[in-house]
Amino acid sequence: MSRIIVDDSYCKGCGLCVTVCPRDVMELDQETLTSKGYHPARLTDQSRCTGCALCAQICPDVAITVFKESKGEVKADAE
Amino acid sequence: MSTPTATPTKTVAELEAHADEQVVFQRPETLTSANFSYCPGCTHGVVNRLMAEAIDELDIKGRTIGVVPVGCSVTAYDFFDLDMAQAAHGRASAVATGIKRANPDSIVFAYQGDGDLASIGTAETVHAATRGENITVIFINNAIYGMTGGQMAPTSLPGQVTQTSPYGRDTKTMGFPIRVCEMLATLDGPALVQRVSVDSPKNIRQAKAAIKKAFSYQMDGVGYSIIEVISSCPTNWGLSPVAALDWLRENMLPYYPLGVFKDAGAAPAEAETEASHE
Ligand SMILES: Cc1ncc(C[n+]2csc(CCOP(=O)(O)OP(=O)(O)O)c2C)c(N)n1
Ligand code: SF4
Ligand code: SF4
Ligand code: SF4
Ligand SMILES: [Mg+2]
User: Which ipTM score applies to this complex?
Assistant: First the structure.
């Protein structure tokens, strides 16, 4: 399974990642406040994440790390 | 029990990866661990990351020197794990010129906003370009003075409401926006003049390729490059980060067409077709 990690110490809750996720599995977590006072982004359904990294490409605060399930050859840059 | 020196050290993300996983995206090495001081959703951050990735991939971290000016990027010396210099407002291209000429083996970039590069620093910008200085200029066009609270910039659009054009930019009294790439492309000095945008993953990929090309031209001694990046300023545009990118697409991209305006390294036919793409 592919997955992402959002580092709450960087995330400023801008929501850009939410708008570009093709699987619609990102949301701003309204239950959590980061130490900087933002609602951070989180992955809602790991089983649907493809590891495409589009969320990470648009994140202005470089808060997202993307892990992709290695099935043979994995492309480093998401198309 | 010495480990072979060639073994690359693992990054934090790589250590966290499960056995059946591969890290496909992580913070580039050329960024420090510092938080960007930019507002939420500000695309300055995207561009800083792309520059760091390009520097990593070209393996020039050890010899790259950055020059940042006055503007929201004023604290960028904290974000890049590089030697950095701070220039007075508008003077980054002149400072970069001096650093490059004194240290010709280093790779030198100037990172400048539109108020900095196209207003107070117009003379330094045009003359560095026409001299064909072998430097890389990354130009953030967000159509506003961000740092000082949203005054009109030379690049603000006709009709755009800013703190100093509260009824919208009236071209009769305030003139027209400067299209920096089109203007500099008339000069013989520049090697690469290109405008990109960072509003979508697709455009971000193209922006990365342009930035990397600009650095590689400097490495190969091809000459002066400027990459203009159409960017957002959610705070001073008074929009959410998501709405700001919509506004950018609807208003800035029609006025500032993306494309390659000059490319000394391209085959003649290729340069022509790319410039005419509008
Ligand atoms: C000599 C001088 N004049 C004016 C200023 C005030 N000032 C600070 S930043 C700025 C404009 C910044 O706008 P821009 O270059 O577009 O950068 P942004 O913040 O939008 O990224 C101005 C006019 C200054 N610091 N120094
Ligand atoms: S990696 Fe792709 S699918 Fe997974 S959360 Fe990010 S954008 Fe969505
Ligand atoms: S794009 Fe980055 S900073 Fe913005 S909400 Fe998503 S993870 Fe947080
Ligand atoms: S004021 Fe504008 S340009 Fe400056 S950091 Fe905030 S959003 Fe970015
Ligand atoms: Mg600006």
Answer: 0.92
